Each structure stands twice: as C-alpha cells, then as structure tokens.
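Inverse folding, one chain.
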C-alpha cells in the first residue's frame, strides 16, 4: 500500500463518517493517526512489509523536489500529527464554530489521495522534516 492509496482510503473514511455523523469512527481514526505518529509504525509500511516484504518509498509525494532535512522526524509522522490535531480542534474543541474544518480536511486528504500531491506534506518537507 502506498501513501497515496492510504490518503485516498483515509479521505473516503473521513468523508463517510462525517456524512453519517459516526463519531466513534472519527475518534478511532484520530487515535490511529496519533498512534502511528508516536510509534512510527505507519500502516502503509506494515501492509507493504506483509505483502511485498519491503517498505514504501519515503519520498513519495515530494514531487521529486530536493528538500533540506533539519530534523530527524519524518514528514509522514508530522503529517499524521497535524491531521489528528486539526481534526481534534474541528471536532472536539470548537465543534459548533469550526464545523467546516473537518470537512475541508477530509476533501483535501481525499484529493491528495487522487492526485498524489499533498500540499501539507510538501509544506512539512519545506519546513525541514525528513
């Protein structure tokens, strides 16, 4: 499983759970993203190891642009933390005033899964994440 396919599936699940107002699914997705970010056991890498006995390409989604690494934290881990924190802000902290924020995140992640280009991932790479 590639990171692009992961983003596509994650975006679809987010959109469906937001549409049907399935809060337990949303909370479990937030928890999964935090656990992946903390443990560095990314779901696409685990699935690729089981299927093909190799890991995913870590530069996938960077458009082949060279970036300077300033920290040892990978951009994928930082991306998962950012998505989880933005979903928490939109769903738990300010649910009435920021109802559009989780929807925007879900459509953006779904679009990144379709196109293979994630602007937040590129921004994190530009900020110096590995």
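Residues assigned per position:
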């Amino acid at each position: 499983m590639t990171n692009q396919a992961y983003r596509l599936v994650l975006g679809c699940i987010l959109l469906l759970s937001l549409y049907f107002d399935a809060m337990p699914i949303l909370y479990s997705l937030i928890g999964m993203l935090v656990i992946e970010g903390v443990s560095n056991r990314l779901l696409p890498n685990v699935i690729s190891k089981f299927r093909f006995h190799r890991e995913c390409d870590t530069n996938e989604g960077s458009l082949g642009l060279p970036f300077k690494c300033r920290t040892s934290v990978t951009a994928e881990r930082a991306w998962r933390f950012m998505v989880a924190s933005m979903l928490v802000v939109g769903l738990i902290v300010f649910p009435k005033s920021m109802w559009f924020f989780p929807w925007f995140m879900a459509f953006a992640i779904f679009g990144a899964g379709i196109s293979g280009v994630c602007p937040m991932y590129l921004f994190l790479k530009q900020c110096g994440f590995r």
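The mean pLDDT is 85. Residues 4 and 116 are 6 Å apart (CA to CA).
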